[in-house]
């Protein structure tokens, strides 16, 4: 299973924020859309990613105010992307080794989706269920 298969089952919208937006406004968007991270985009393209963990560690624990802090000051600028033809297994390995839960998907330089660890886990479970079902059918028919 590859990233493109999983994106087919998701809304095509990738929620993003401007680097100059306040952390508070970004959190409002994340709450409204029920998501844990947003991609940070300027005129040139993706410049970062901001997740709930950044809020916890870079804002709350550092005593900053979410209404007076810009997203660009607390985001991760070094974004790791995946491609639509990458396998879900590769994505899970990346998320596990780098300890993050979101992977923006890029194709020919454009942002075409965002894969979360939840999407990946769901896809792997459904693939395994399918294999079990096939094996059960095979065993039953063989008997
Ligand atoms: P998360 O587990 O996704 O909430 O993110 C944990 C940390 O990794 C935060 O500092 C995020 O900004 C960062 N992060 C999340 N996804 C990515 C990514 N694809 N590339 C680089 N950093 C990321």
Please tally the helical runs, counting DSSP H or I stretches of 4 or more residues.
Answer: 5
**Order of strands across the main sheet:** 1-2-3
Flag low-confidence runs.
none
Total strands = 5
Radius of gyration (CA) equals: 18 Å
Bound molecules: adenosine monophosphate
Overall number of structural domains: 1
The N- and C-terminal alpha carbons lie at a distance of: 30 Å
Second-tier CATH architecture: Roll
Mean model confidence by pLDDT = 95
Largest sheet: 3 strands, mixed
Give the % helix.
40-55%
Question: What is the secondary structure topology, with strand pairs?
Answer:
Layout: H1 3-8, E1 16-17, H2 23-33, E2 37-42, E3 45-51, H3 52-60, H4 88-98, E4 102-107, E5 110-116, H5 117-142
Parallel strand pairs: 1-2
Antiparallel strand pairs: 2-3, 4-5
Helix pairs in contact: 4-5
The structure holds adenosine monophosphate.
Detailed description of the structure:
44% of the residues lie in helices and 20% in strands. The longest helix is centred in the last third of the chain and has 26 residues, at 117-142. It has one domain: CBS-domain (Roll). The chain is an alpha+beta fold and 143 residues long. The two termini are 30 Å apart. Bound molecules: adenosine monophosphate (AMP). Adenosine monophosphate binds at residues 36-37, 49, 51-54, 76, 78-80, 100-104.
In a nutshell, what does this entry contain?
With 143 residues, the protein is an alpha+beta fold. It contains 5 helices and 5 strands; from the N terminus they run H-E-H-E-E-H-H-E-E-H.
């Amino acid at each position: 299973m590859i990233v493109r298969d999983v994106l087919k089952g998701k809304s095509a919208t990738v929620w993003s924020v401007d680097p100059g937006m306040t952390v508070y406004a970004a959190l409002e968007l994340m709450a409204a859309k029920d998501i844990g991270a947003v991609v940070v985009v300027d005129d040139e393209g993706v410049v970062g990613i901001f997740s709930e963990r950044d809020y916890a560690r870079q804002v709350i624990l550092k005593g900053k105010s979410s209404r007076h802090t810009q997203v660009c000051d607390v985001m991760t600028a070094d974004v790791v992307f995946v491609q639509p033809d990458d396998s879900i297994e590769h994505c899970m390995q990346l998320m596990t080794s780098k300890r993050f839960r979101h992977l923006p998907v890029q194709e020919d330089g454009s942002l075409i989706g965002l894969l979360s660890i939840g999407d990946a886990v769901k896809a792997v479970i459904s693939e395994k269920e399918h294999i079990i079902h096939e094996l059960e059918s095979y065993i039953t028919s063989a008997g």
